[in-house]
Amino acid sequence: MRRAAETEAAALPALLIAAEHLANTVQMGGHGRRRTGPGEEFWQYRAAHSGDAARFVDWRRSARSDTQFIREREMQTAQSLHLWVDPAASMRFTGAATGRAARPEKRDRAQLLALALGISALRAGERVGLASPLAPPRPGKAHLLTLAQALTSETADTDYGTPDLTAVAPQSEVVLISDFLGPPEGIETALTGVADHGVKGALLQVLDPAEEDFPYDGRTIFTSIGGAVQFETREAAGLRARYRDRLAERRDRLETLALRTGWAFSTHHTGAPAQAALLWLHGALGGARR
Questions:
Q1: Residue 195 exposure: Cα atoms within 13 Å on the Cβ side
Q2: What is the pLDDT of residues 60-83, one digit of tens each?
Q3: Is the confidence at residue 232, as pLDDT, over 80?
Q4: 221 DSSP β-pair partners
Q5: Which residue has the higher pLDDT, 95 or 111?
Q6: Hey, which residues does 253 pair with through a beta bridge?
């Protein structure tokens, strides 16, 4: 146990560095809600209307025209962002063949994306935490190490994970990152439960390219990462079409769930650059705020 803990601790600096670098390559600026209200940041000028108090008039800007202008500020309401990375055994899969370019485990890519998104949100003044009570949302850069430790310490013995969103406060935002290959009823129950309380967010499905392409032929033994399930076939290629159909059905079901609850859904492959997935997450959260 001690050796495992030391290994996890040693990986934290590398993960933090990689997440900081990824967040720096995708600079989206503050992603607070664009509304007029109390705040320090200038948003826009507008023409003064009847009933506006004189103290709100920007006399320097008004002196350059025949119209009086009001200087509006952007409302700064701190958001709470909850992150969930599936800790189950299936997320440890990588289908990279020996001698080919190495691909990360799905879990490693998911943790990198979640932490990079958390860094961006913290920089924008938001509160960031996990969906579980291990690390409730907090503001500030000092919270980053706690977030990274909690994120990497969550593990599960089951083959597939289901998020527990009971600790998520109403009107918060949530990002769930998983392969979503387990029984779909769990994610459907969790999502519809929080959506009824005004919670918005994004589902990001992370898959290894082998899980998309199913590049297996001949005699093949399929074993779940946890070892609970094993299946042997003499002609794996004959399963390809049915497998792809079932994967497409699962994706359609997730897209329908996201549409029904007002969330966003996308799929990311570990063979693709992480920047594209992070950009999508930024855009998905921005859409949830409008």
A1: 18
A2: 888 888 888 877 664 444 578 999
A3: yes
A4: 232
A5: 111
A6: none
Whether the CB-CB separation of 229 and 221 falls below 8 Å is answered with: no
Q: How far apart are CA 225 and CA 212, in angstroms?
A: 17
State the Cα–Cα distance between residues 263 and 187, nearest whole angstrom. 13
Which pLDDT tens digit goes with each residue over 143-166?
888 899 888 888 888 889 999 998
**Coil, strand or helix: which one is 148?**
helix
Per residue, what are the HEC states of 203-218? Answer: EEEEECHHHHHCCCCC
For residue 133, which of 119, 146, 115, 120 has the smallest C-alpha distance?
146
Q: How far is the C-alpha of 238 from the C-alpha of 258, rounded, in Å?
A: 32
Give the Cα separation of 241 and 53 in Å (integer): 69
Percentages of the chain per state (helix, strand, coil), in multiples of 5: 40, 20, 40
Q: In terms of Cα–Cα distance, which of 192, 213, 210 is closest to 201?
A: 192
Give the count of beta carbons closer than 10 Å to the beta carbon of residue 144: 18
- HEC string for 164-191: CCCCCCCCCEEEEEECCCCCCHHHHHHH
Any idea which residue has 């950009």 for tokens?
279
Distance of CA 205 to the CA centre of its chain: 10
